[in-house]
Amino acid sequence: MPDQLAHPDASPYDALLLLSFGGPEGPEDVVPFLENVTRGRGIPRERLKEVGQHYFGFGGVSPINAQNRALLDALRKDFAEQGLDLPLYWGNRNWDPYLTDALREMQRDGHRRIAVLTTSAYASYSGCRQYRENLADALDALTAEGVPAAELPRVDKLRHYFNHPGFVRPMTEGVLDSLAALPDGVRDEARLVFTTHSIPTAAADASGPAEEHTADGEGGAYVRQHLDTARVIAEAVAAETGVERPWELVYQSRSGAPHIPWLEPDICDRLESLHAEGAPAAVMVPIGFVSDHMEVLYDLDTEATAKAAELGLPVARSATVGADPRFAAAVRELVLERAATERGESAERCALGLLGPSHDLCPVGCCPARAPRPAAAGADSPYA
Q: Does residue 214 contact residue 205 with C-beta atoms inside 8 Å?
């Protein structure tokens, strides 16, 4: 066992912040939540009510907040069992508990060096830099409230964990469970359809550090990271079952204007073409998502599953990592490796696949926005 795991020392960190997207917890929350998500885009309230039908179909409740509470419980249990004394806090981008409120509480509690875990495993503007911008906005708010610069907490975002064993292995097990749920006659020839959130192709090509950006539609770090994770899972499933199954990466949850190119193919379109090609069954593997939140429950469990039923194509949807104890242990390892690095010590950096462990500090030009804004927890942070 690495020394940083045998003798857990999180210094210089004195707290961990779980930073997530947030979601409504009742029908009255849905439209205000969507107004938060779309602020500045000029989308009419009536249109937001139409979009909110996905939430109203589930009682106006997104499961993401409950899932974050479950993850916090799993982290507290793991930390306590491993002797890691690190307070946990939680803040959201778009709904209560809000990030600014969480950072304000942490500052008032005396925390000055905070490790940040986001519920997004991959590089992209919306999955990484936008959270860093949110952190900068929250620190700006504390400054505007009169908090002296010396008393502002320093925030360090933990590295991308898409290829950490504690993220990959639970998802591999979920695929195996889903294959076992398929009828015997179609199991061995079932396709593995890995799915993640579609984003504009321009954002995909510009994802990751500047030297990894592409101009030829290859997808930058966002697509490469997903493909590497999918490959690791597919190979592990083949080794476990003795059957090599075709696999591919597809996309879901597109929300942009029709004239703007987004990553394709869409999951429902691909299910149709798989059926036309004679595929006997498919397992949908939501590798782009940490938990079974609304985009998994609606876009996969409702919409894509209905499309498969219409086609007569047997499908199963594998589990996300959620609050799996192995993922909680992975978070602890990520905290301890970063802490050791910040202390100038060596640390084992666990990663599967071909890409290796991601950078700790996002470099200048990483996952840029169309309109540059200050972002914390990076080489270009105004908050050192």
A: yes
Question: Can you count the helices (H) and strands (E) in the chain?
Answer: 15, 8
**Could you tell me which residues come within 8 angstroms of residue 43 by beta carbon, excluding any fewer than 6 positions away?**
none
What average pLDDT score do residues 42-50 get?
80
In this prediction the pTM is 0.95
SS3 288: coil
Say whether pLDDT at 212 is over 90.
no
Cα–Cα dist 376/155, whole Å: 7
- pLDDT band of residue 6 (cuts 50, 70, 90) is low
Look up residue 128 and give its DSSP letter: I
| Structural domains present in the chain | 3-23+62-119+124-159+323-342 (3.40.50.1400), 165-317 (3.40.50.1400)
Instruction: Return d(Cα 139, Cα 152) in angstroms, integer.
Output: 7
Of residues 94, 123, 308, the one with CA closest to residue 199:
123
Q: How many Å apart are CA 315 and CA 277, to the nearest integer?
A: 15
Contact between residue 97 and residue 24 where contact means Cβ atoms under 8 Å apart: no
DSSP bridge pairs for 192:
247, 283
d(C-alpha 328, C-alpha 84), whole Å: 12
Cα 28 to Cα 185: distance, rounded to the nearest angstrom? 47
Q: Which two tokens stand for residue 218?
A: 């290859």
The rounded distance, in Å, linking the Cα atoms of 220 and 359 is: 15
Outline where DSSP puts E strands in the chain.
15-20, 88-92, 113-118, 154-157, 191-197, 247-252, 282-285, 315-317
Q: Hey, what are 226's tokens?
A: 């997903």
Angle at 121 between CA 118 and CA 125, to 5 degrees: 80
Tell which residue, 238, 158, 229, has the closest CA to residue 195. 229
Q: Give residue-wise pLDDT tens across range 135-183.
A: 999 999 999 999 999 999 999 999 999 999 999 999 999 999 999 999 9
Give every CB contact of residue 85 below 8 A, 6+ residues apart in sequence.
10, 79
